Amino acid sequence: MRHALSIVTLGVADVDRAVAFYEKFGWRRSEVSDPAMCTFVITPSTVLGLVPFALLTADAQLGTELEKAPSFGGFTLAVNGHSPADVDEIIEIARAAGATIHQEPGERDWGGYPGYSAYFLDLDGYPWEVAYAPFLDLDAEGRFVLPEGSSA
């Protein structure tokens, strides 16, 4: 059986506010989104869901004590660009949409691998990395291109 990460669902304090942020970020809301929640189809195989905290915690049977994102939940979300200029542009789009820039764009050393990245926090505090990794190939849609012989 093959399976892949296909949906990331974020609990949000205010769906309309979160939708406005991600639309300013450049993503289009799915036409089949429910008024109480929202989905953005990022790629043909990747969806971002925005759901009120109370609804998400009830659905996952986590209780209803969560009203906002934890300050850091041990994960980051990421968007990759084709160049350092892409990273700069995406960070400026996020800034204009109301994100808090946590780490300005700059050169990075990822354990001996060079790169260029920045971090922002969305309106609910979720950490997003925007990165350019010259050792990773992306297609025109921003999807990873695996080397010949690799499997997903």
TrEMBL record:
Entries under Pfam families matching the protein: Glyoxalase
* Coiled-coil features, chain-numbered ranges: none
Where does the VOC domain lie? Answer: 4-133
Enumerate the SUPFAM superfamilies for this protein: Glyoxalase/Bleomycin resistance protein/Dihydroxybiphenyl dioxygenase
Q: Which InterPro entries match?
A: Glyas_Bleomycin-R_OHBP_Dase (IPR029068), Glyas_Fos-R_dOase_dom (IPR004360), VOC_core (IPR037523)
PANTHER family cross-referenced by the UniProt entry: BLR2520 PROTEIN
According to UniProt, the name of this protein is: VOC domain-containing protein
Q: Which organism is it from?
A: Nocardioides soli
